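User: Hey, quick favor. My workstation is busy. Could you predict this chain's structure for me?
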Amino acid sequence: MKCPGQDTRYWTPDDVTEVKCARCGTEVEFFKSDGARPCPGCGGRVLNPRVALGCAEWCEHARECLGFDPKAIVVKKSAESSVAARFIEAVKKEFNGDSKRISHALAVLSQAQAILREEGGNPRVIIAAALLHDIGIRAAERKHGSAEAKYQELEGPPIARRILASVGFDEADTEHVLRIVASHHSGGLIDTIEFRILWDADGLVNLSEELKKANEPPPVSVEERFKTATGRTLAARLIASRLSGHRR
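Assistant: No problem, here it is.
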């Protein structure tokens, strides 16, 4: 039996979208259920900013699709909704169709999930922090004319608090996420495993972009730049892969 969420008989035109590859500009077509696809132009991985996870709220195969079980990661008093799906919708709304920033948030979530599986931590806090860490960018640009790190860290927490409240986060988890958002560039206010996972997940996505843009792989001190053993391992693999590509 075909998964109803995958059956195109139930789809509308809004369930198919096109996203420009940030690397080469080629249009990549996505179905609503696609998390990522290779770019036909340059081969790079392009993330779908409009991915819909609704079926994951009930599907027994959600773990295979998403890499984690959303039914096991729910907010108290909101068991009918996955945390990830609700935050993704909030991020899409806040970024107002900015596919580059939405895709970055999704990429950080993906890396955070990979590190979480190895390092442990509070999955609700990690998912929320991964998706909301850059949520202050637009307010920073609007109010200060700059997306500089200090402005992101200043403007992000009030917006994140509003979103967290709408989802029903308790006060302890809310304050934890807000401290991460307020420190995701500087690292000055917090040093928990959840913060270190977000730091490394963001760093891995940024490192991947740096390696794609550089003619030669830039020197990177994995030990200094990353805070978890898993983050350092994944970063070393990225660099090794890039170096191998240059040798071909």
